[in-house]
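Researcher: Here's the sequence for the chain we discussed earlier.
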Amino acid sequence: MDTESTEGRRVRPRAGRRPHAVTGSLLRFDLAGEVRALAHEPEWVEQGHNAKTLVKSPDVRVVLIALKAGCGMRKHKTDQCLTLHALEGRLAVRVPGQALDIPAGTMIALGQTVVHDVVAIEDSVLLLTLGWSKA
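Model: Thanks. This is the structure I predict for it:
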């Protein structure tokens, strides 16, 4: 099932998800409700992680990510600047030369191409924001 955003862009949700607009001049999210929904989807139950893109525009992406303790994102880098905001739980983030403890309520910002990995120390929820190149 498709839905239409305020700009008329068609959005196709993942199977079993309620459709929502990812572009528009005003988007509003119930983050607690979104987290509850992520925790009930098969990806969370079977694989220990789940994610949902909340905002997708030419210059920014916002992704809500839920991770069970011990799960994470392997060492990688992005071509974009990013922020990682721990909403719930506790994360371990490794960057060159540092291991960071990121408890709920903490946000970090990383520049382009900074190699990093993320592991949930506890069941965790984070909000990932990526600057996005128009190229």
